[in-house]
Structures are given as structure tokens and as C-alpha cells.
């Protein structure tokens, strides 16, 4: 493991009262989570995790579903980066159920918070990223050539009495991105960079099927996308390795895009991940037959190109 690796997929949570922490755990159990109550996130625990798994910097994200809480969370995330500039970066959350508030938070994140990029949820309070009401938000992100990290909702109610974080979240990602293709978002706004959590879920594995069937006459295609255009837009996406670092997902990812569009992610900081699972994910990545060890190291460092300001802080911090 290189000490230059950047983890693009790391979560944080602002401090909670005991009552808030217990309420969160009650809601998780209602959504089929079992076992012992997980420890609340702290910056000290995050730093220990980074040492344990061998990561130099984490790009932090947290996307509360209440607007006031989202802004407060962004403020707290910025304070962490200010205190530990060579260890953390901030992906400022955007409230994508209200385009005016989202655009206002983009400006605030740039001007007041010095955020490195932005974080969005595939479906935020019932509004998908492909919703036409978000058109002006994508235009603003495209104008800034912003890096946007897209994460599914891991706390929705599961099916078959299993938490959504096991399977359902990754399908939400794939379905959302496919709809963004069909609604022409990537055609109209080719300059922003979109990073998909969990290697895009099943999207790479199903991209061949999409290219084969997705432009057939019986498929609604109002933007008249061609298979070649769809192929290029899929290849332009960035995919992180969070809990998807094995050959089962990296192989299809390399078929859909290229090694320079795969970035390291751990998914640390939330109850569905731990130091043990993060280490297992790295070990699986190291053993992918499709990749040379040089390519594995490249994946660990690809985020340095996405986040140049964070890269400068990392270098300045030694």
C-alpha cells in the first residue's frame, strides 16, 4: 500500500447527543439492521482507520436528508479539513430535492467552505438525480468542471428482511445512472466528473446488455442516443472500489471504462464497514488478475488528479 493513496469514499457524522445516537440506531433496526449498536463516528477513529489500512487521505462525505442538518454537516466537515488539511478533504453535500438550495450550497461550498468536490444521493427525499428539475444544478456543476460523488441511500427499508446496504443500494445507483443517460444529462453537460460509489453497482456488468438492447426501437429513447454515444458516456464515468475491489466487479469495470477511471474507496465511517472489511477489500484488489501491481497503485492514486487542491495539501503535509 502506498502512502499516497486517497480514499474517495469515506463517511463522517457530526457529533450527536446520546438521544440522537439511540434514535439513529432504532431507525436502523427498523430497517433490518441487527447485531450490536455501532460506535459513533469520531475523527480520532477515522485517523486510526487510515493508519490501519494504509491510506494517506480521506475525502469525507455525509448527506443528511434535512436541509439545515445538511448545511451544518458541511460546516462541520469543513472544520475537520481546516484542522487536518493533509489528512482529509470535503465533498460538500447538496440537497438535490430543491434546485435553488442546491445551487446556493454549491456556491457556499466553493466560497466559504473550500470544498474539494460535491456529494449527492441518487434519490434524495424522493427526487432522483435524473429529475428534469435539477437541470440548472447540473449546468452549474458542469460550468465549474466539478467532481461529484454519487452515493445511494443505504438507510432505506430493506427487502427480504436484509438491510439495503447488502444489495439494494447498488441497484439504485445503476438505475439512476442509466436514467441520466436516457435523459441526456451527460450529453448536455460533459465537463463535470461523476464518481460512482461501489464501482457503480451492477452497472459495469450490465453495460454490455444496455449497449446491445438499449437503443433498440422498442426502448423509449427520447434523446435518440446511439449505442456509440452511450458507450463513450459510460466510459467517462469514474468508479470507486468501495467493497467492490474483487475481480467480480473490477473485471466488468475495466470493460466499461479504463484503469485511470477507477479510484480507491473504502466505505469507512459507516456501520456497514469496518477496518476488517476495508482490509479485505484492499487484499482482494491486490489479487485481481486483470491488474498489474502498477495498475493497483495507479488506482490508489488516481484521485490525486481529480482533487488537485487535496493533492497539494497532501504534499505540503509530507
Characterization of the model:
The chain has a single domain, classed as Metal-dependent hydrolases (TIM Barrel, Alpha-Beta Barrel), CATH 3.20.20.140. The chain is 46% helix and 13% strand. The chain is globular, with a radius of gyration of 19 Å. Helix 4 runs parallel beside helix 5. By secondary structure, the protein is of the alpha/beta class. Strand 2, helix 3 and strand 3 form a beta-alpha-beta unit. The protein has 14 helices and ten strands. The protein has an eight-stranded parallel beta sheet with strand order 1-2-3-4-7-8-9-10.
Main traits of this protein?
single chain, 318 residues, alpha/beta, TIM Barrel, eight-stranded parallel beta sheet, two-stranded antiparallel sheet, 14 helices, 10 strands, 46% helix
Concise summary:
The chain has 318 residues and is an alpha/beta fold. The chain is 46% helix and 13% strand. The chain has one domain: TIM Barrel, CATH 3.20.20.
Low-confidence stretches: none
Question: Whole-Å distance between the termini?
Answer: 17 Å
Number of helices: 14
The fraction of residues in strands falls at 5-15%
Tell me the number of strands: 10
Give me the CATH architecture, please. Alpha-Beta Barrel
Largest sheet: 8 strands, parallel
CATH superfamily, please? Metal-dependent hydrolases
Strands in their spatial order, largest beta sheet: 1-2-3-4-7-8-9-10
User: CATH class, anyone?
Assistant: Alpha Beta
Helix content: 40-55%
Order of helices and strands: EHHEHEHEEEHEHHEHHEHEHHHH
Structural class: alpha/beta
Domain count = 1
Q: What is the residue-mean pLDDT, rounded to a whole number?
A: 95
Based on Cα principal axes, name the global outline. globular
The Rg value, from CA coordinates, equals: 19 Å
CATH topology: TIM Barrel
Amino acid at each position: 500500500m502506498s502512502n499516497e493513496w486517497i480514499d474517495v469514499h469515506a463517511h463522517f457524522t457530526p457529533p450527536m447527543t446520546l438521544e440522537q445516537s439511540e434514535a439513529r440506531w432504532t431507525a436502523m433496526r427498523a430497517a433490518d439492521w441487527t447485531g450490536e449498536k455501532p460506535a459513533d463516528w469520531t475523527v480520532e477513529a477515522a485517523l486510526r482507520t487510515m493508519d490501519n489500512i494504509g491510506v494517506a487521505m480521506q475525502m469525507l462525505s455525509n448527506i443528511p436528508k434535512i436541509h439545515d442538518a445538511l448545511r451544518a454537516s458541511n460546516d462541520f466537515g469543513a472544520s475537520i479539513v481546516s484542522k487536518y488539511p493533509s489528512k482529509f478533504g470535503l465533498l460538500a453535500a447538496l440537497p438535490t430535492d430543491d434546485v435553488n438550495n442546491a445551487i446556493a450550497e454549491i456556491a457556499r461550498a466553493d466560497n466559504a467552505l473550500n470544498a474539494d468536490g460535491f456529494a449527492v444521493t441518487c434519490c434524495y427525499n424522493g427526487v432522483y438525480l435524473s429529475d428534469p428539475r435539477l437541470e440548472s444544478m447540473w449546468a452549474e456543476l458542469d460550468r465549474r468542471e466539478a467532481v461529484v460523488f454519487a452515493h445511494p441511500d443505504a438507510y432505506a427499508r430493506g427487502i427480504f428482511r436484509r438491510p439495503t446496504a447488502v444489495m439494494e443500494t447498488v441497484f439504485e445507483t445503476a438505475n439512476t445512472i442509466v436514467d441520466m443517460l436516457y435523459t441526456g444529462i451527460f450529453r448536455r453537460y460533459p465537463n463535470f466528473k461523476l464518481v460512482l460509489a461501489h464501482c457503480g453497482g451492477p452497472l459495469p456488468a450490465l453495460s454490455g446488455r444496455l449497449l446491445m438492447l438499449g437503443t433498440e426501437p422498442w426502448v423509449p429513447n427520447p434523446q435518440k442516443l446511439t449505442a456509440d454515444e452511450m458507450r463513450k458516456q459510460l466510459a467517462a464515468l469514474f468508479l470507486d472500489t468501495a467493497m467492490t475491489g474483487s475481480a467480480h466487479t473490477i473485471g466488468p469495470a475495466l470493460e466499461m471504462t479504463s484503469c485511470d477511471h477507477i479510484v480507491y474507496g473504502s466505505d469507512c465511517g459507516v456501520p456497514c464497514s469496518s477496518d476488517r472489511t476495508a482490509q479485505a477489500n484492499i487484499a482482494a484488489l491486490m489479487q485481481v488478475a486483470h491488474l498489474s501491481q502498477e495498475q493497483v497503485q495507479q488506482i490508489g492514486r488516481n484521485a490525486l488528479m481529480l482533487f488537485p487542491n487535496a493533492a497539494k495539501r497532501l504534499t505540503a503535509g509530507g
